[in-house]
């Protein structure tokens, strides 16, 4: 029988198990996909730890994962444009991507460009929709000077590259180990830690200032700092500071505001080498606990993926 990741109670990575399940059957407008790679996201961890209890329904034993890439195994009724054997990038709306087989609606499936690796494709959907939504929410474009926190993470790395692609000057806050990568992708790096405000001010001056937008993927006070540095609240978007909208009047627009068209545009740029989604590490499906431990203990560059 096929295997899938499940958890039967809230908790840390230790509650995750790989169990045998019935093979899903595609319904109307659905694809059954043999998963080749499935991405991990911080949302998965927060959901599993009970952060959204009372807000997002969870029925135990619960599946995990949204991002995936794989090969179409079968199609349901009313499916056009896809056939068995097609290679796709997609999103599992029922959070069942971390499995050997998953169901994907045709509205959240796209052809995988051959030049985009299975690992990068499998970790793409959530960070792509989130990054595109953040750029749009803050109105980032040519001539802007933009601060990105968590600039080398999965979302932050794409946000930084997209802002640069659209003509903005980008200042990226990250650990020093990722500064070379940021420079190579058109981003002016600034180190985390004590004195970060002064370092950001210096980077803004070097970029020709003033700072016009903040895209916060890390939390920890960057929305407040943006206001302190003169950025209008409507040009600050955070996906990590959950009280910021009510507290500061900034935006909190992320993946739910992104679209399949956003992912398609990003895939096109990745296919020709204009954007990169680094893969920090790949783990076999049965090492899911180790994969989430890695995600939750550090700030990896790019994505962590599971390989069923």
Can you give a write-up of this model?
This protein has 308 residues and is of the alpha/beta class. It has 2 domains: 3-124 and 277-307, Quinone Oxidoreductase, Chain A, domain 1; 128-256, NAD(P)-binding Rossmann-like Domain (Rossmann fold), CATH 3.40.50. The chain is 29% helix and 25% strand. It contains 10 helices and 15 strands. The protein has helices at 42-48, 118-122, 125-137, 154-165, 179-184, 196-206, 222-228, 244-248, 260-271, 288-297, and strands at 3-7, 16-20, 30-39, 62-63, 67-75, 87-91, 101-105, 109-111, 145-149, 169-174, 187-191, 213-216, 236-238, 279-284, 303-307. Strands 3, 5, 6, 7, 8, 14 and 15 form a 7-stranded mixed sheet that branches. Strand 10, helix 5 and strand 11 form a beta-alpha-beta unit. The longest helix is centred in the middle third of the chain and has 13 residues, at 125-137. It is globular, with a radius of gyration of 19 Å. The model has no long low-confidence stretch (mean pLDDT 95).
């Amino acid at each position: 029988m096929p295997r899938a990741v499940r958890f039967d109670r809230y908790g840390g990575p230790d509650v995750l198990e790989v169990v045998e399940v019935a093979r899903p059957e595609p319904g109307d407008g659905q694809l059954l996909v043999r998963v080749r790679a499935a991405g991990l996201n911080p949302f998965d961890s927060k959901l599993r730890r009970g952060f959204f209890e009372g807000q997002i329904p969870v029925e135990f034993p619960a599946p995990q994962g949204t991002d995936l890439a794989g090969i179409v195994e079968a199609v349901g009724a009313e499916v056009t444009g896809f056939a068995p054997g097609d290679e796709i990038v997609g999103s599992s709306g029922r959070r069942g991507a971390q499995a050997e087989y998953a169901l994907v609606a045709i509205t959240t499936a796209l052809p995988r460009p051959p030049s985009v690796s299975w690992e990068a494709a499998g970790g793409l959907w959530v960070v792509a929709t989130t990054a595109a939504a953040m750029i749009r929410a803050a109105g980032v474009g040519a001539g802007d000077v933009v601060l990105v926190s968590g600039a080398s993470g999965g979302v932050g790395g794409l946000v930084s590259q997209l802002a640069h692609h659209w003509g903005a000057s980008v200042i990226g806050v990250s650990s020093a180990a990722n500064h070379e990568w940021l420079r190579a992708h058109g981003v002016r790096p600034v180190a985390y830690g004590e004195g970060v405000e002064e370092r950001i001010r210096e980077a803004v001056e070097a970029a020709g200032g003033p700072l016009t937008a903040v895209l916060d993927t890390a939390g920890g006070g960057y929305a407040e700092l943006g206001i302190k540095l003169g950025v209008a609240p409507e040009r600050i978007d955070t996906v990590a500071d959950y009280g910021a909208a009510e507290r500061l009047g900034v935006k909190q627009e992320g993946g739910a505001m992104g679209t399949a068209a956003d992912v398609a545009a990003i895939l096109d740029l990745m296919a020709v080498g204009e954007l990169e989604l680094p893969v920090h590490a790949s783990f076999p499906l049965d090492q899911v606990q180790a994969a989430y431990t890695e995600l939750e203990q550090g700030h990896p560059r790019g994505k962590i993926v599971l390989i069923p």
